[in-house]
Request: fold
Amino acid sequence: MTVNGTKMLLPVEAYISREWFDREQRELFGRSWQFAGMTTDIVERGQYICVQAGAYPLIVIRDDEGELKAYHNICRHRGTQLLEVTGKRKKVITCPYHDWVYSLDGKLIGVPQRRTQFPDLDMSEWSLFPASVAVWNEMVFVNPNAECMPFDKWLGDFPDHFGPHRPSQLMETDVRHYEIKANWKIFVENYIDVYHLSHLHSETLNMYDHAKLKSAVTGPGHVATYDPPTREYKRYLETSPNNYMPLAIQEAENWGAYVHMMFPNFGIAGTEYSWSTIEVMPVTPRETLVKIRTRTALEGINLAIANVYEKVGAWVSQAIGYRPDADPLQSGDFMVEDIYACEQQQKAMESPRFAFGPTSIDQEQLIIDFQNAVLSYMPDPED
Ligand code: FES
Ligand SMILES: [Fe+2]
Reply:
């Protein structure tokens, strides 16, 4: 009789090997849609965002007609990256190396000393390499391939709801970056691991009833979960004054945590108070950058009160010498707990003695589904 769930599908190499990492960067991220930012990041003509989609540096830019366009961030002369981070170009994109000039619609329109140095150059053949761009619920997504699976198809049945929130009705109140010493898949697997919620987070996420968590896997490997509030927490929400309760969330049927993951590496999480995007960016096989942007519906005086509380809290912690990193499992911050668990797991995987143990009947099933999806994007190295 089977007493355990399906075994983990990925080998240890998937988490530590450079060769595996490079293949993932080309094959998995080369064929996936990646989150680039919010439409509010690129409102004006000429505004752009740079995105590293696996091995592919890309640009999303708003052109002269106000349309979003995506290109590979590679000069057609000798490849120099044209733009960095985010910003605004006036009318054209100029390569910093030898000043080749491109229009916002990607055409090569200027080559210095063209007559003497490139007499036979047909400029129309040297436009920027196109990539694909799509907008969904104010989020901008890019794909390195100009002829890729359309975004709508990629999305499949991924839920068009994030709890009760609509990003446009919320205000960005917090942006955090975490440098994590673990493979990006360890972070994603932890993010969709139902089993750890009542254990690692027994003190920090105990307001949700994990036994009643519902989940669904859709499309190429997207995950949607809903974790309802416990009876006690529901009572607390019912009786708490609306000071901190965003208008959108005043209906009790919307309470709970909506935690979604768009395959392969983009999280969207909504709770009673906030809505966050979670970008999981692979840096090396053993390093991952996680960027979390949070919006809340707090406005005016409520937002001011919340900020004061946070500042006073930080001041008190400092005054009493409280350091959350002194004991990550006493931090009261579930993110600190998660990072701790991820980094410890990565360390263990470096040991030649390491081997995966048994898997739970169903609370780790989303991890297996994720691994299956990763494998389906990873052709054999010999092929
Ligand atoms: S590399 Fe861009 S102009 Fe030479
Ligand atoms: Fe967690």
